[in-house]
Design a protein that fits this description.
about 625 residues; alpha/beta; seven-stranded mixed sheet
Length: about 625
């Protein structure tokens, strides 16, 4: 295992029915190639030593003897490898024949596990030849420990049962489940099987490595498409192209650290484990020193909060918006409120909040004029954001108010004896608090609620003025990180009702992120850019996701970020901003401890009432020290 990863392969070798010598050589050839790629565990299909479709030949002594000789050959060959591989073969035991998974490594037969559930369909009447596990004391009670990673085995039909052996193996500690299969292809079966594999890896909070028979098996009555799938906790990491005439395989690095964290964190898994300790498992140990290969065989998306598959973009975005709308609708309904007040800056966050508000009013059958959008130009407001704010409000048909804060804040500076030419934190925060006061007072005038616009990324970094834009009656963006806010606004633009609305939204997407609390430059452009001050939001969202979702160390998150942003940010830049992230994340907890209500949208949330409960005075020393050592 390298920095928490464990490299596995699902392989579909060349097969010739009942030709053991050919099949063994094909397995040998593939194992050599996988060994060169640093694979630590390779999985081959069910009965891959003989071929799955031997039928009544399984009871021919010559084939049984050849299978034994083939396993002996593979055992001897394994001395030359730095991996464990698992093949399928018929095994005779106490006068019965079993369909078995055989784990081989380091010149030893590490484990032999028979198939637990034998199919009895017309095309797969395995009970004609084989005996199921648990007969004569020959069962599947073995877990292989490879350098600390625990591996359990099941075979084909086992997965399709109400309580697969893999469920019990996972509860017994197996991080990785392998399935040696020979699943033929019929209409509709493939998609169902992939969903089954994903669901089982999710329910086991583990990895599932599936290798199924392919070209070369008999086509007398059935056809085998040669599937190789690696899934982890509900997601497919690697999958091959089916219907290949040549041997094929897929490789992926399983995130064992993530699996262990989730099993520790999800208490229902441990409750289930405690309630189902019915079976004792033997552990067989294997030490593997993989061939050096620095390539990471899995993708690390640079934007973990953003949908990555084009086919689910509309579905995912609509789901996110529906969560926000449902949260706001219920709050309005519960408080008998028919008016909202929103500060509209012409930036991303207030834009998303306004778009959600209009959808909510439409769904509740309320007049959009009940949404009072207030633009409050100040010392740093640029023509670009001011124009976009007005254009967006007009396009959406809400009530528009414009209130300059310049005079009020200037008077306030006089009252507190602050030099207006000193652009310090007092200069900035006074403007933010003045805007919040205006919104709150208008809400009082109109019987409205103030809708907060701050997002998850700002909450993580504490990038909000305490008792300023930090405060509202409901924070509709509380569960939306900045990278996702930008993505959602762009999505809204593609679905805009008019061209002018689309153009305004796209310009907002392209506008630099800024609180606009410092005067513009000599050309009237934004001078104060948030990402110049606190760092790129895409990096901070990356750090946030892996800190909260998996509890990873700064060192591991740094390593992952270097991979995800290779060619975009250098190591020194990533080190600088990850240090900033952890310093701010700890120091700004006090702002989150009193944050307004808001809907949880994804797996990461900072609500002090639910997902994140942290002392405001906790020390960041351990995290900062590790960041500085990178």
């Amino acid at each position: 295992m390298n920095t928490g990863y464990f490299r596995v392969a699902a392989a579909v070798p060349s097969v010739n029915v009942a030709d053991v010598e050919h099949n063994v050589e094909s397995i040998v050839k593939m194992c050599k190639e996988l060994d060169d790629k640093g694979v630590m565990l390779a999985v081959f299909p069910e009965l891959s030593v003989t071929g799955y479709t031997c039928a009544d030949l399984f009871h021919q002594e010559r084939l049984i003897e050849a299978a034994v000789a083939g396993i002996d050959r593979l055992q001897e060959f394994s001395n030359t490898l730095n991996l464990v591989f698992i093949v399928g073969a018929p095994v005779r035991h106490n006068g019965a024949l079993y369909n078995c998974a055989i784990a081989i490594g380091g010149g030893e037969i590490l484990a032999i596990v028979p198939k637990t559930y034998l199919p009895n369909y017309n095309e797969f009447y395995e009970k004609r030849w084989f005996t199921p596990a648990n007969s004569e004391g020959f069962n599947n009670d073995v877990i292989i420990d490879i350098n600390g990673v625990k591996v359990g085995m099941e075979i084909c039909e086992d997965l399709w049962t109400p309580i697969p052996p893999s469920t019990e193996l996972a509860l017994a500690g197996a991080h990785v489940i392998v399935n040696l299969s020979a699943s033929n292809d019929i209409i509709g079966k493939y998609n169902y099987l992939i969903d089954l594999i994903k669901r089982q890896s999710a329910s086991c909070i583990g990895a599932y490595v599936y290798a199924s028979a392919g070209y070369g098996e008999s086509t007398t009555d059935l056809v085998f498409d040669g599937k190789a799938v690696i899934s982890e906790n509900g997601s497919v990491l690697a999958i091959n192209r089916r219907w290949q005439y040549e041997p094929t395989y897929v490789i992926s690095d399983i995130d064992i650290a993530a699996i262990e964290r989730d099993r520790m964190h999800i208490m229902s898994f441990n409750d289930c484990k405690a309630a189902n300790r019915k079976k004792q498992y033997k552990t067989v140990f294997a030490n593997v020193t993989p061939t050096a290969d620095n390539e990471l065989y899995r993708s690390i998306p640079p934007h973990p909060f953003v949908p990555s598959e084009d086919k689910i973009i509309d579905e995912r975005c609509e789901e996110i918006i529906n969560i926000q709308v449902a949260g706001l609708a219920r709050r309005l309904d519960a408080t008998y409120t028919k008016h909202l007040v929103i500060g509209i800056s012409g930036g991303l966050d207030s834009t998303l909040a306004l778009l959600v508000a209009t959808k909510t009013f439409d769904r509740l059958g309320l007049d959009r004029k009940g949404i009072i959008g207030v633009t409050m130009p100040g010392f740093g407001t640029t023509d670009r954001t001011y124009t976009n704010a007005l254009s967006l409000m007009a396009a959406l048909g809400i009530t528009i108010k414009e209130i300059s804060i310049a005079n009020a804040v200037t008077q306030h500076f006089k009252d507190i004896d602050h030099d207006i030419s000193v652009h310090d934190v007092t200069y900035e925060n006074s403007q933010a608090r003045e805007r919040t006061q205006i919104l709150m007072d208008i809400a009082n005038q109109t019987g409205a609620m103030v809708l907060g616009t701050g997002d998850l990324s700002e909450l993580a970094l504490g990038w909000a003025t305490y008792n300023g834009d930090h405060m509202s009656m409901y924070g509709v963006n509380a569960g939306i990180p900045k990278t996702l806010v930008r993505y959602l606004v762009r999505w809204f633009a593609t679905h805009a009702a008019t061209e002018s609305e689309r153009e305004t939204l796209m310009d907002i997407v392209d506008t630099p992120i800024s609180p606009e609390l410092i005067p513009a430059d000599e050309h009237g452009n934004i001078k104060q850019k948030t990402e110049d001050l606190v760092g790129p939001y895409e990096l901070h969202d990356f750090f946030l996701y892996y800190t909260l979702r998996y509890g990873f160390t700064p060192r591991r998150i740094f390593m992952m970020a270097c991979k995800a942003y290779e060619g975009v940010y250098d190591r020194d830049t990533i080190k600088h901003w990850i240090t900033t992230f952890f310093r701010r994340f700890f120091n700004q907890q006090f702002k989150r401890s009193c944050m307004p209500d808001g809907p949880k949208v994804g797996s990461v949330c900072l609500s002090p009432r639910g997902d994140w409960r942290m002392p405001s005075d906790a020390s960041s020393k351990l995290w900062i020290k590790e960041c500085e050592s990178l």
